[in-house]
Amino acid sequence: MLGFGAERTDRRLKFLLWGLITVAFGVRIWGTWYGLPFSYWVDEYHEVMRALELGTGGFNLGRTSKGGFYFLLFFEYGIYFLFLKLSGIVATAQDFAEQFVRDPSAFYLMGRVTAVVIGCATVATVFCLAQRAYSTIAGLFAAAFLAINILHIDLSRRIGVDIPMSFFVTLALYYGLQVAEHGRRSDYLLAALCAALAATTKLPGALVLLPLLIAHTYYVARAGGGVRTWFGTRDLWLAAAVFLAVLVATNPGILARTGYLSLFLDTSDAVMDEGIAGVVSTIDESARPNLYSYYFGVLRDSMGWPLVLLAVASVAYAVWKRTTADVILLSYAAINYIIISSTVSTKLYFPRYALPIVIVVIVLSGRLLGEIAQSVARHRVVKLAVILAGLMAYPVWQAMLTGYALMQTDTRTVAKDWIEANVPFGSDVLIEGLKIAPIKGTVQLIETPEAINRRIAYWKAREPKQARFLELQNAVHPGGGYNLTFARPDSFASLDDFVQQGIEYFVVRPEYFFAPKRAGQGGAGLVSELQGSSRVTLLKQFEGDSRTQLGPTIEIYRLLQNPKVESG
Predict the structure, then answer these.
(1) N or C: which end of the chain has fewer CB within 10 A?
(2) How many CB atoms lie within 10 A of CB 9?
């Protein structure tokens, strides 16, 4: 058995660490195929399309608050293109684009597996951070807690920027601790590099600069310097130059924005992401929860009460001890908590925003449990096993439930199959949508070639990129389809308006529109009309949001009084 006070890496330590990484990989890789060939998860579409856009020589300078991950996707897609070309499956870039439109499963799966690998690398990096800050046993506990953390597992299964950002932030904090103790130039530069990569991946990653500056302060104080030394340290300015150079090189769009602070507080990207995903584009301020409580609830839900209570105790313990590592880590958690919970700085709130806080409290929890373990004299292994079982039971159980649900077919896919089997092709259907397709939150119906051609004619002069994508859709069209009328989530008309447009069928998500955050939007009024009107009949309902099946509840209505539909 590895001694609890040992600070050396031997074979048993490596075995334990690789065992934890293997567990982390297993629970994260399971379910990466969920929903394919459709992507129902928020943000995935944007990262994939940005990588493909880069492959055509384009660079989205406007999307500046998120990036980085798509560089990896661009590289992977390039390798995939070469493989398909050498295999004779595609001959040109046009063929490759059509392959994506026909079935994007491989593209999404590559990105999701990449996220899984980065998530597992973060587990290993958290071990290194906790070991560097406190002890080897603290590192093992922290790695174990992150390996089964529900939020981290969930985000590691999808293409998104939060997992890679947290990876680079963890590395930056590690090198920050090195700066505080040793002050080597290499540590300064590596900390700056990781901070820049975190910020270019997702702009809030720049908050890691605060603990890094605190680390610099500790080093200057340890060396006996004062304010002049703090500002006059050459390595600090070299690190600043590296940070800015890497950030601008990887995210040049920031040069076109009016100030770094306004860019950090801008939510336009988030609004675009969530609107296309069908989550929310505007929020009723009166329905906003207390965000300090909300994000504490996120920690509780991702860790379970036993582990979150340990986390609270570990934070209090760190405040009491106030070691160098304590101050550096707590400063990062605190600034994140304040920023994401401030009603001034954010218009949106989502669980993933709490991931940086999760990383810190997990490290602190590993430290506290490690010190408790060291104080146990008799029956140490048995007592520790019981404690760990109690702390980890909830997240492990939730991971198993989610894994099972990911094995089931999403309600939107089930609804799509039913509609195509029971609703005649060519019917006029109302569904939530934006410019050229249904939003990701609803059923992914396809349009008829004729309807797509009409959209191409409309968008060709206004947004050629949209028209180009529609042309690809028509090039690989499988046949069939519907005449879709897209209703924006925040601008639904009344039932009478849609009757006049000749709509025959309505596909809606009732729970979505009745949620408090969407109060006052037209969708709730339309759903109420559909549910209470004698002019329509409910053809089918697919219950969603259960523990055993993912996806929203979908309701499909048919208008009885439309002259295009035979009565009865």
Answers:
(1) C
(2) 12
355-399: pLDDT as tens digits: 999 999 999 999 999 999 888 766 667 778 888 888 999 999 999
Backbone angles phi, psi at 152, to 5 degrees: -65, -40
236, 228 contact by CB (below 8 A): no
Radius of gyration of the chain (CA): 26
Residue 90 and residue 322: Cα distance in Å, rounded?
Answer: 60
**Is the backbone peptide bond immediately before 438 cis, with ω within 30 degrees of 0?**
no
User: Which token pair is 235?
Assistant: 């390595």
Question: Which residue intervals of 440-515 are DSSP H helices?
Answer: 449-462, 464-475, 495-500, 510-514
CA distance 139 to 133: 9
- Tell whether the model's pLDDT for residue 4 goes beyond 60: no
pTM of this prediction exceeds 0.70: yes
- What the block records as the tokens of 369 is 């449990």
Structure tokens of 310? Answer: 């340990």
The string of pLDDT tens digits covering residues 48-96 is 888 888 777 666 655 666 777 888 999 999 999 999 999 999 999 899 9
State the CB neighbour count (10 A cutoff) for residue 49: 18
**Could you give the domains of the chain?**
11-36+110-277+291-407 (no CATH), 411-445+482-559 (3.40.190)
Q: Which amino acid does the sequence have at 9?
A: T
